[in-house]
Design goal:
Order of helices and strands: EHHEEEEEHEHEEEEEHEEH
CATH superfamily of the largest domain: Pseudouridine synthase
CATH class of the largest domain: Alpha Beta
Number of domains: 3
Oligomer: single chain
Number of strands: 14
Structural class: alpha+beta
Shape: globular
CATH topology of the largest domain: Pseudouridine synthase
Largest sheet: 10 strands, mixed
Helix content: 10-25%
Length: 303
Amino acid sequence: MSNAKFTAEQAYPRADIYLCSVLEGKTRSAVKKLFESSLVTVNGKTAKASQEINFGDIVEANVPEAREYSARPEDIPIDIIYEDGDLAVVNKPQGMTVHLGNGNIDGTLVNALLYRLDSLSGINGVIRPGIVHRIDKDTSGLLVVAKNDKAHLSLSSQIAEKTCRRTYLALLEGRLKDARGTVTTYIGRSAQDRVKMAVVPPDKGKLAITDYTVVKRYSGYTLCRFDLKTGRTHQIRVHAKHLGHPVVGDAVYGNKKQKFKLNGQLLHAFRLSFVHPATGEEMTFEAPLPAYFTEVLGKLSEE
């Protein structure tokens, strides 16, 4: 248990929001647990998450030491659409977390990969072996996994240099006005909710660029293709909200009351292109829309 002590330099409407802003690397759910365990005090008195923080308040938190853990192999079925000695391309299902963290210690894609593949790169350590890039838990689709460090470095470089092309399909709420365009903003942590990302001023976030093209228009909805030029957390979902047309099924950035019975957003990484780290061959993979996505499209009327 370590003690963290802070003096508030401005007022905050809630103590948990303040603590999220000053405790590095702690999510709002982790901070919530500190309050539930009576591990936070304000001016020497046990604090509630909802209480206000005033200028000059002394806030202390007793933070449990981080638990060391590593991923273990699990016999979980996954769709590996390509594999060779250097890499594998996986079609991740909706609802599966990519790697360990934030309380997820099993049932992740990494657990499944450790069971299915003969090797994974070690650059990201024992928690994220082989993981070059990620997609959200409730987003489906393609990602490439490195089986050795040389392949990992090559693929990571391609992502950084924007030569690895990642294309998504999403169903958006409402009618997107322009047939195509580019969204250029800065994305960072939301000041109101540290779990969320948001469009923020340049000094508060990182540059995020997304190209979009309308694929098909429906009555009240738009099927849209998104091409990532950068890879920020929740980038497409935040940019869709910024356009005024959040992704259908996205309870975090969109409408919490959904017309369709969904377990997450209708966002699918359907195409992935990169240069093979060993052969230099240009490789492109596509994964069809999952059944729950096409079922929703089948219920809509085209314009």
